[in-house]
Design brief:
mainly beta; 123 residues; 4-stranded antiparallel beta sheet; 0% helix
Length: 123
């Protein structure tokens, strides 16, 4: 089982980036998916999560209204559209497969983690 997050990069404040998370080895259409991020010297924090059918989403207050999570179960892909980026969004972004049908806000609720993709927002 492998998860790979990609799409990170360097962007100016106010810009946009779209992250993708690809799963291989098995399908995760019955599991919630979450995005987390970790900035240097800080703990990993919850960003967004989506339910197995994609009908329920949850966002951290810090990204609500700016980020959108979505998924395509036919392609085993999950997306994170990030708009109006701020320097404080700079972090390594990870996707993870939840133990249940909806992704929780705590990392302990996730079973598989992908390698992160770096997002850097310049001021």
């Amino acid at each position: 089982v492998q998860l790979q997050a990609y799409g990170g990069g360097l962007v100016q404040a106010g810009g946009s980036l779209s992250l993708s998370c690809a799963a291989s080895g098995r399908t995760f259409s019955n599991n919630g998916i979450g995005w987390f991020r970790q900035a240097p010297g800080k703990e990993r924090e919850f960003v967004a999560a989506i339910s197995w059918r994609g009908d329920i989403t949850n966002y951290a207050d810090s990204v609500k209204g700016r980020f959108t999570i979505s998924r395509d179960n036919a392609k085993n892909l999950v997306y994170l559209q990030m708009n109006s980026l701020k320097p404080e969004d700079t972090a390594l972004y990870y996707c993870a497969v939840a133990l249940k049908i909806m992704g929780p806000v705590v990392p302990s609720g996730y079973r598989y983690w992908g390698q992160g993709t770096l997002v850097t927002v310049s001021s």
